[in-house]
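Reply to dn_fold:

You asked what the input looked like. This is it:
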Amino acid sequence: MSIYQYIYLAGLLWGSVFALVGGGKPERWGAAIILCGMILSNVAAAHSGQLYITTDAWFFAVDACEAIALIVLACTADRYWPMWAAMFQLDAVLTEIVMLAHSTPPFSYGLALRLFALPLPLIVGGGTVRYRRRCRLRVAAT
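and this is what came back:
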């Protein structure tokens, strides 16, 4: 595993556990969506022979479903962070669509997908921090 994978997994672990333990309903849903997306992406990678050479249908399906779930979360939640998470995931889906339409070098394609995935767990963790701060301020104000 590369250093980027370790960084992503550490951020995913921190953001997800923190959101599941201390977050509100949108934070827990966001963590669940991102965790499911990561698990399903690893399953798709195990069945794909060539990573980042072309757009794989399973990767595209996982990323598109994750983007749709985050967009629904952004439309229903009363927080700002789901909009950011949905935007990053939608960028990953658009990168895969561009890869279908135009041949991009595998390094650029893989790097773009990784760069859009890295901030997702940190966005959920940051949203949880802000949620906990709001809860503390409400308690202090009463």
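The mean pLDDT is 86.
Hope that clears it up.
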